[in-house]
Amino acid sequence: MFLFTFVEFNFYMDLIEDQYFIQGIPVLDIIKEYGTPIYVYDTQIIERQINRLKSAFHVDKLGIHFACKALNNINILKFIKSCDVGLDTVSIQEIWLGLKAGFTPDQIIYTPNCVGVDEIEMALKLGVQINVDHIETLEYIGHHYPDSKICIRINPHVMAGGNEKISVGHIDSKFGISIYQLPLVIRLVQTLKLNINGLHMHTGSDILDAGVFTLASQILFDAALKFPDLEFIDFGSGLKVPYQTDDVSTDIEEVGELLSNSFNEFCNQYGRKLKLYFEPGKYLVSESGMFFVKTNVIKQTPSTVFAGVDSGLNHLIRPMFYGSYHQILNISNPKGRPRIYNVVGYICETDTFASNRAISEIHPNDILGFKNAGAYCFSMASNYNSRFRPAEVMIHEGKHYMIRERESIEDLLKNQIEVL
Ligand SMILES: *Cc1c(COP(=O)(O)O)cnc(C)c1O
After folding, report:
1. What's the CA gap between 147 and 137, in Å, rounded?
2. Phi, psi of 400 (to 5 degrees)
């Protein structure tokens, strides 16, 4: 019983003869119009992922909230809202952004960590669903906002250690209220008459192992029996998508089958049908995004051939920050002879996107495309080296739209105050 399989790699672009297309539009036409570096998002893929997730679960009511820290362009948020998906936020600013995108407060979950009481109060006043991960915050809300509905973020202390070994530990995580503090939580809830309408867990680690996930969900169900006023149980995320051809990824159909069964069983035991929530970021948008850059130089050293591109860790930091793998394609020369490259950025740091990577022969000015560039890519971009952040384009219903223009020197100086 494993929740992972070798998933056939999803090709986001169509390769017809020597050209890549997204929704029928030649990629090189998009580049010609908007330039590089540029992020391009395909709404069809977002919709496909939402539908896949929805059809994997057989429960009375499934609620999906998109974790917008993965990708926060307002057009993407509006599109996701139109697919009947809510929003998962981790800051007051993300709440404001969600409200601007048209989400109603009841469609927004707010899961902060280590934020101050003033921010929590702002969120409570806006009427969003608050998800508390600190006992003192529970007490505070109980004293000052006795009528609000509160979800509690539990840390079940379960995590995967390697693929099969289950280690019950992770005791030093800063997230959630420890499951071992449940007796204290229950005492507070009863004394302060708190209205606990949800239980939540998000371990952050990838859901690849059925044993680990089943164990964690069982811990949450057992805890849930002690809270009589629940409306939902939220399993957070951890849904993984493939980044490489033979990558392991969450088998959502199998997760859906297993969890639906245990959830329905739990609801019988609980005596009432609750809502099942998920809050995916990566799963919904990672594959929808491509990042396109231009090759500035091919530089040969005694040991290595470098392809130096017009971008760097300022625009796409995942390879350097997490060691993430992003598949790279030569859009200008899709069928050339594969050669081995180190693809690097133009930042004055060692910003290596890929090492010893076989890519169709690259020449200066060739356009390279990075896959899986929808989640945690633009949203983590910076202006380091005083570089402008990339533009963003959305492909929707066969048309392309610029949804964020390229920055200018005015943007870099915008909040600076010249005093000399
Ligand atoms: C980041 C985050 C998510 C989304 O995680 P993914 O791995 O992108 O799916 C969900 N819930 C919370 C509370 C988060 O902080």
Report:
1. 15
2. -110, 140
Residues 2-25: b if buried by 16+ CB within 10 A, e if exposed: ebbeebebeebbeeeeeebebbeb
Taking only the tens place, the pLDDT of each residue in 9-43 is 445 788 998 999 999 999 999 999 999 999 999 99
Q: Which residues of 125-160 are buried (b: 16+ CB within 10 A; e: fewer)?
A: ebebbbbbbbeebbeebbeebeebebbbbbbbbbbb
Is the omega angle on the peptide bond into residue 37 within 30 degrees of 0, that is, cis?
yes
Task: Determine if ligand 1 sits within 6 Å of the CB of residue 90.
Answer: yes
Q: How many angstroms does the Cα of residue 64 sit away from the middle of ligand 1?
A: 12
**Distance (Å, whole) CA 333 – CA 214:** 46
Closest residue by CA, ligand 1 atom 15: 90
In 3D, which of 219, 207, 287 has the Cα closest to residue 254? 207
Nearest CA to ligand 1 atom 7: 238
Q: Is the CB of 280 under 6 A from ligand 1?
A: yes
Q: Kindly state if the Cβ of 85 falls inside 6 Å of ligand 1.
A: no
Query: Hey, whose CA ends up nearest to atom 2 of ligand 1?
Result: 67
Q: Is the pLDDT of residue 188 over 90?
A: yes
Angle between helices 43-56 and 252-270 (to 10 degrees): 40
Q: Does this model's pTM top 0.70?
A: yes
Alpha helices in 236-329 (DSSP H): 252-270, 282-285, 318-322
Q: What pLDDT is stored for residue 192 in this prediction?
A: 95
CA distances from residue 94 to 50, 134, 141, 238, 374 in whole angstroms, order as listed: 21, 20, 21, 20, 17
Domains of the chain: 4-40+286-413 (2.40.37.10), 43-282 (3.20.20.10)
Q: How far is the CA of 2 from the centre of ligand 1 (A)?
A: 22
Percentage with pLDDT > 90 across the chain: 81
Q: Which residues pair with 26 in a beta bridge?
A: 21
Close Cβ partners of 406 (under 8 Å, ≥ 6 residues apart): 35, 388, 390, 391
Residue 377 known to be catalytic: no
Which residue, 238, 293, 417, 212, is CA-closest to 38?
293
Higher pLDDT, 53 or 2: 53
199 CB near ligand 1 (under 6 Å):
no
Is any atom of ligand 1 closer than 6 Å to the C-beta of 202?
Answer: yes
